[in-house]
Amino acid sequence: MKGSIELKRHLSAEQSALKRQLVGEIGRSGYKAVSFKLEGTLAQLPFAEIYDLFTFMEGEFSLLHTGTGSFVQYRLQAQQEAEKKTAHPSLERIYSILEKRTKISPTSREKLMKRECELAGYFAFPRECGKTLYHEALSQGRSITIVADTIYPRSVVSRVLRSCGYEDYDQLIITSEESLPEEDYAGALMDLIVERTGMPSHQILHIGGDVAADVEIPILKGARAVLMPPTVSLMVKSGRLRGFVEAGHVYDYDQPQYLTLHCAFGLYAAYGFDIPQNKLPQSDFCGDAYMLGFMVLGPLSLIRDFSPASDLQRELIEAMERSPECAGGKEDFTTFYKLHFAGHIEKFSTKGCREPLEFLEKHAAPGDRLLLRKQISLETDEAWTEAYTEPKLAPVRLTSPKKNALAKFADTLFPPGTKVRNITDGILMKMKSH
């Protein structure tokens, strides 16, 4: 089963303590019910960006659409437009808007919507920390409620639950099937959980990934709550690597040629931050050689005929390969990459997969240089230290930025992805730099 392979690393002391605390919370006296959010807490997708799933649909879309523009952009725009009318639109509503925007036929709309559901169900896999808490709740005899706060229909939710091993529960709430008021959505959802559980709120423990909706609201309603932050947000905040990569691709980071790199970040988040860990001072890889090997050597292993661009890169690679912890990270990356993506991503470019190495070469934090000090010579260590410069970082976003009036006007005149639009973006970028 996806996600069930044991990692070749030991948890940090802080992660071990947190895991014991989380499991212990389930067993506290006074609880009779535990409610779990599905997305991000019990199950997740192996992607770093919300639009990565849509990239797999570009081929189908091109066969059904006679115009220009990418499916990713159309799909994101349709959801943004749907969310202007209701913060929690259905998948049907999103695709109705997409149909009007792209002028595809109703039959084509249904094909694309079905394909997205298939992909979402296929790629979903369990978050192991969430699954541990789920099994602890079962063993303690707690009533279990699973909340699928999703745009996807019951058929997709049921497939995810089965494939992830969540088949024992007392209540399943699928929010797309409920009529929840927009003005107090989170509060109404918690009220519904209490109602369906049939127990007073003080006997309910709620577990989810949103501070406001999954911690503050349950506590205000009289329940207790545990926060399980999404793995991608934890990964983003753990260091400067993601900001460095995005700074180098201000205008093309969302393009298909970087999907492989996105997937590498997605795996790094899912397996490195399953049990939350915070950024460590003077380190961009949590002070962990395993994490360094996973995110630097792992993506490099995907590049055919890779060769280092400098002697320092070559020596750093050799040093990481001599480190058992780094080598274990690389081996796990390869295992998980095949597990999640074999047969689905080979056609995409590996562009950008050498950039974690470039970041390590030129911008390695002192704590990360210490991880390899035993594997490199004094001369290499001195050269590496002298090569250090502060990286240029982009403000890292977990969601797509809202477009200004100029960008929206450009979308109207020149659809994203067209040759004319790419030229226009280049001109705008030069204007912005002056």
In brief:
With 434 residues, this protein is α/β, with parallel strands linked by helices. The chain has 21 helices and seven strands.
Question: Care to describe what's here?
Answer:
The protein is an alpha/beta fold and 434 residues long. The chain folds into 3 domains: 27-45 and 124-228, 3-Layer(aba) Sandwich (Rossmann fold), CATH 3.40.50.1000; 52-123, no CATH class; 233-386, no CATH class. Helix content is 54%, strand content 6%. It is built from 21 helices and 7 strands. It has helices at 13-26, 52-55, 58-64, 71-85, 91-102, 106-123, 128-139, 154-164, 185-197, 211-220, 231-237, 241-247, 259-272, 289-300, 311-322, 324-341, 355-363, 366-371, 378-386, 405-413, 419-433; strands at residues 33-37, 43-44, 125-126, 143-148, 171-174, 204-208, 224-227. The strands form 2 sheets. A 5-stranded parallel β-sheet has the order 5-4-1-6-7, sandwiched between helices. A two-stranded antiparallel ribbon has the order 2-3. It is globular.
Mean of residue pLDDT? 90
- Secondary structure tally, helices: 21
Characterize the overall form. Answer: globular
The chain-level structural class is alpha/beta
| Regions with little confidence, pLDDT below 50 for 5+ residues | 400-410, 412-434
- The gyration radius over C-alpha positions equals 23 Å
Gap from first CA to last CA: 52 Å
Largest sheet: 5 strands, parallel
Number of domains: 3
Question: What is the percent of helical residues?
Answer: 40-55%
- The fraction of residues in strands falls at 5-15%
Total strand segments: 7
Which sequence of SSEs, written as H and E, runs from N to C?
HEEHHHHHEHEHEHEHEHHHHHHHHHHH
Strand line-up of the largest beta sheet: 5-4-1-6-7
